[in-house]
């Protein structure tokens, strides 16, 4: 019998969370889609893995047997895939969100090339609906990420630098002419948000910890171009890294510093199974050395 490893990853998340809603948020999928995948796995195995109730998802005896074996199975498969790709292609796949490590990205890639002659870094941009930039699903070997993000406690993360969060506004906005804006003045504004399934990564970019009450959502976007268009069209404003003013300058949008909101952090993340991988270790070292001059 052939079972898609994706189904096993979904099963493992539900087994660990004991709740479909939390598991769906962790996996960045909708709850109906997750329910369908679990039922598909049960159909393939010919047995019920969970008992469902208002209190959540409880493992059956068969489910507990599978839950005991799946983590080691997936870890072994992921390691095998990464080692096979590395041995055959000498390509390091690195996921990233938006501007990655800002201006330091070319220096990181150059330094890695010097450390690992013959190797190439394949940069893969991920949608904002996937804050791990593909790392959680083993689509990449390492990822340049914005902290915090859901699931980071299950990965290795090395913080590289931080930078202030600013606000992106339509140029016609009444506050656009200010040199600096207090975050409290923005609480009642509609915000352009990341998809709801990104959980507390979305909350971070809505300033949830620094405001009273729930934010107003004017638009939901998944890509930088969509995000810029929503702001320029007046659907909402958005918190953004200070570097967005350089990387995402666009007519009709202005970026302004914001008081009373904490910074955003950039990190390099990798799988715990790769702690002894010398190629990953070299890439992490290059990231640390190249970002020492980044904003603190």
Structure explained in plain terms:
The chain has 296 residues and is an alpha/beta fold. Helix content is 36%, strand content 23%. The protein has 9 helices and 13 strands. Strand 3, helix 5 and strand 4 form a beta-alpha-beta unit. Helix 1 crosses helix 3 and helix 5 crosses helix 9. The longest helix has 29 residues. It holds the Pfam family HTH_1. Keywords: DNA-binding, Transcription, Transcription regulation. InterPro entries: LysR_HTH_N, LysR_subst-bd, WH-like_DNA-bd_sf, WH_DNA-bd_sf. It comes from Amycolatopsis thermalba. Belongs to the LysR transcriptional regulatory family.
Our count of helices gives 9
What is the residue-mean pLDDT, rounded to a whole number?
89
Q: Which stretches are low in confidence, meaning pLDDT under 50 for 5 or more residues running?
A: none
State the strand order across the main sheet.
Answer: 4-3-5-13-6
What portion of residues is helical? 25-40%
Spatial shape: flat
Strand content: 15-25%
Extended strand count: 13
Q: Give me the secondary-structure category.
A: alpha/beta
Please compute the radius of gyration using only Cα atoms. Answer: 21 Å
**What's the multimeric state?**
single chain
Pfam families: HTH_1 (PF00126), LysR_substrate (PF03466)
Protein name: LysR family transcriptional regulator
Keywords: DNA-binding, Transcription, Transcription regulation
Family: Belongs to the LysR transcriptional regulatory family.
